[in-house]
Amino acid sequence: TQTGDAVEPKAFKPEFKDYQAVYNEIAKLLQEHDEYDDGSYGPVLVRLAWHASGTYDKETGTGGSNGATMRFAPESQHGANAGLINARNFLEPVKAKFPWISYSDLWILGGVCSIQEMMGPKIPYRPGRLDRDMTSCTPDGRLPDASQGARHVRDIFYRMGFNDQEIVALAGAHALGRCHTQNSGFDGPWTFSPTVLTNDYYKLLLGSKWQWRKWDGPKQYEDKETKSLMMLPADIAFIEDKEFKKTVEKYAADNDLFFKDFSAVIVKLFELGVPFTDKTETYVFKNLDE
Ligand code: ZEM
User: Fold this and answer.
1) Ligand 1: which atom is nearest the Cα of residue 153?
2) Angstrom distance (rounded) from CA 287 to CA 285
3) ipTM value > 0.95
4) 137-167 pLDDT tens trace
5) Is the CB of residue 30 below 6 angstroms from any atom belonging to ligand 1?
6) What is the DSSP letter of 36?
7) pTM
8) Are 164 and 253 members of one domain?
9) What domain range includes position 73?
10) Per residue in 136-150, is it b (16+ CB within 10 Å) or e — as a string?
């Protein structure tokens, strides 16, 4: 350099290997913290990524994963987000170790990593979300209400820009995790393997007999045979509605098709309202055991 030139400190520009390092850290913590729930934080991390994204409104361009506004009240206090503090807290040590990543990108990476590590398909990932402050919190009521049926489910997901096939593909995420009375009032898992992504949600919807559970909690279904699985009224809408049911049948019969469509639609969900540039690269992460 010539004498007198100021030497600007180079801004850190994270690359694929840096995001893969964050992925690996999350995957390692998932393995270490098998004391949670059914043995994994994976399902609640997927739910955090979904609730961060599912506030999107295509008319106004508000909401979506760009902002991570669920860090703040009132959004953190919305009834639908009860229990997601567990997922946000799980990711705090990752944020501390990699302070250059935005919360918005980190929460989505948490979802991507969890799906892949729970034996799901590859979920291509693009970084570039920027955190916003509490003035960007979305109004309550943008996420689906489990006690309602097909009409409501369509209203909510059409607002984000999804079609019927995409809605059914997304709902397959209910192969994962469970309902907790302390969060939603509902109780129980949808499948017998709630920490592995499969098309079992569709198989069970079609293959089991569903009856109202007799209890003093909110109205939900139980499977007649074992009484150990559950469906929400909004889940049963997928077999009550003819159009939805056709897609349920396709995914119940073909796990590869489900994986392919699920990957595509969850990428769409995670990217709603995110302002990528034409230079944004797409990353496909290696699993921890690859
Ligand atoms: Zn869920 N979901 N969801 N969901 N969800 C719960 C749990 C999980 C609905 C819903 O009301 C509920 C999608 C769509 C819809 C996950 C992923 C995705 C719970 C239980 C409820 C009540 C929460 C609790 O008590 O802790 C409704 C009505 C939906 C639309 C019709 C979509 C789309 C998802 C991702 C793509 C996951 C992974 C869980 C499990 C969370 C956990 O902690 O185990």
Assistant:
1) 31
2) 6
3) yes
4) 999 999 999 999 999 999 999 999 999 999 9
5) no
6) S
7) 0.97
8) yes
9) 16-142
10) bbbeeebbbebeeeb
